[in-house]
Amino acid sequence: xxxxxxxxxxxxxxxxxxxxxxxxxxxxxxxxxxxxxxxxxxxxxxxxxxxxxxxxxxxxxxxxxxxxxxxxxxxxxxxxxxxxxxxxxxxxxxxxxxxxxxxxxxxxxxxxxxxxxxxxxxxxxxxxxxxxxxxxxxxxxxxxxxxxxxxxxxxxxxxxxxxxxxxxxxxxxxxxxxxxxxxxxxxxxxxxxxxxxxxxxxxxxxxxxxxxxxxxxxxxxxxxxxxxxxxxxxxxxxxxxxxxxxxxxxxxxxxxxxxxxxx
Length: 263
What we know:
globular, alpha/beta, single chain
């Protein structure tokens, strides 16, 4: 039987690279997409030892045309994508008023627009076949506004809402859509934000292990769950923010955010 194939964006490190290892270990061939080609090639060599066939596509997905270009690259290779993992994303911390306008556009394009466009392109083929899985990487921040990371949280709220709505649209088609909403995870992204001074030092027990997060995401994806929040503490936080008045959640978030933004 032909091996299933997964396409993973943002696959060069962190959560994306660990998803590549998880899928390869479970018998998948892979298409790995990211900007850093050298890291992708090193990961390809690592996964080849697991018997996986790996195609590397170096591409900057923050450009307006990149989603369509990636889809055309895959189609030109005559490859079928059984699972799409929309993991590519960027996070900039600090005051929104201090953000460069190019950084604003980059975050919205990469975290939201490219994700939605890739989903639109690949889901059509999946529905036509009557099978497929889409895994969108959202965040715990999707459940509430996060002053000092205002735009990032907003893009992740989009991903969560988009996933839930699309999951209902696709009910009965054989295609499932899952949103993985991890809290702080031990990745380069989190360390870069912390190193930039936009968040305080976080106790190690509050930072999740990448392998644990990815295992939960993989299980949720293959089981067709719509939303998965890894970790009990994160689940409690998400539930609390959803059951309290919005003004209360917003006010408490604002108090914390203003402390973080102080010079």
